[in-house]
Design brief:
By secondary structure, the protein is of the alpha/beta class. 24% of the residues lie in helices and 24% in strands. The chain has 8 helices and 14 strands. The protein has a 5-stranded mixed sheet with strand order 1-2-3-4-5, with helices on one face. A 5-stranded mixed sheet has the order 8-9-10-11-12, covered by helices on one side. Strands 6-7 form a two-stranded antiparallel ribbon. Helix 2 runs parallel beside helix 4 (123-143). The chain is globular.
Length: 323
């Protein structure tokens, strides 16, 4: 597998020559192809960064232009884009200050704690502008016939609030997130994007995490879009998907995985595994307990953190995993 990575605005292009992705087959062509990675578009679709809100430009036009560019490189348009992977933070704002599921499980809310997240709660702007704009952009990808997967980032959850961290010492308070109703509405397994697509092969909890298959260079690939800091139940679902498609080279996209130093550490004050370890794993846990043990996973894509990094580790079978 030869990987060349380029940066174009908020779009990364991974150009692959599939030389060792899967066993030789009669249809293997070894032709180069491109996987587009779309990280953290929330600032472009932010309802406040538009002319109507007094901003200097309509930032959403940049997002739509990028999606148009990707669509123009589809196979149907003579291009080589085989797949689009979004690593989350598709939009900027959230719609609530607490999540009923976390309430029911007894995850406490620290009322009145000021840690800078309240400015992200804007139901009207989120529902009336940001999510429709995101859908408009990904409709261009869908109309171009490009398979794609979307992993939710922290901004794509329904609610943000302050929660205590048990044994956290100085980090005794953290921003926590919950609820993916808005995300499932836009990118769930029953959405217009995925409901009747043969390449959309599995979903967890209505599409909070999901799986897609795509073909490129004469090979088939499996892509898993993981929710942020995915829990044990997501990992068990993913093991089942991989068991259904043994031998397919597999890519995982998730929101928070590597920091700018190439460490598998959470970004900022949002460490979900500290607040709610029953439902979340750290990136290092996901590596140790799943990725390193699963030989057909050869790549992990992520966003969230400020900066860029790449690391290559060998899995338990001795093969390289590009992260």
């Amino acid at each position: 597998m030869i990987i060349r990575m380029f940066r174009l605005g908020s779009v990364a292009l991974i150009c692959c020559a599939a030389a060792a992705c899967s066993p030789e087959g009669p249809d293997a062509t070894h032709e180069p192809f491109t996987i587009i990675v779309v990280p953290d578009t929330q600032n472009a679709v932010d309802f406040r960064r538009q002319l109507t809100e007094g901003f200097a430009i309509d930032s959403s036009e940049l997002f739509i232009a990028q999606m148009n560019y990707i669509a123009s490189r589809s196979g149907a348009n003579g291009g080589d884009v085989a797949f689009v992977a979004s690593v989350g933070d598709v939009w900027q704002h959230v719609t609530d200050a607490r999540d009923p599921d976390h309430d029911a499980r007894g995850i406490p809310v620290l009322e009145g704690v000021e840690i800078g997240f309240e400015r992200f709660i804007h139901p009207e702007g989120t529902l009336n502008f940001e999510i429709p704009t995101a859908i408009e952009g990904y409709q261009l990808i869908s109309d171009a016939g490009i398979p794609f997967g979307v992993a939710p980032g922290n901004h794509d959850y329904d609610a943000w609030w302050a929660a205590p961290v048990r044994g956290g010492g100085e980090r005794s308070v953290s921003v926590h997130i919950g609820g993916l109703d808005n995300f499932r509405m836009a990118f769930g397994s029953d959405s217009d994007f995925f409901r009747n697509q043969s390449w959309y092969v599995s979903a967890f909890e209505g599409g909070e995490s999901s799986a897609q298959i795509f073909s490129a260079g004469g090979y088939e690939f499996l892509h898993l879009a993981f929710e942020m800091q995915a829990g044990d139940d997501v990992i068990e679902w993913a093991r089942g998907v991989i068991a259904e498609y043994p031998g397919l080279p597999t890519i995982i996209s998730t929101h928070d995985y590597l920091n700018a130093r190439g460490e598998r550490l959470p970004g900022g004050s949002m460490d979900l595994a500290l607040v709610d370890p029953a439902e979340n794993n750290s990136a290092e846990d996901i590596w140790q307990e799943f990725i390193s043990e699963t030989d057909q996973i050869f790549m992990v894509l992520c966003g969230h953190q400020l900066g860029q990094a790449m690391r290559i580790d060998r899995n338990d079978a001795g093969h390289e995993v590009y992260q």
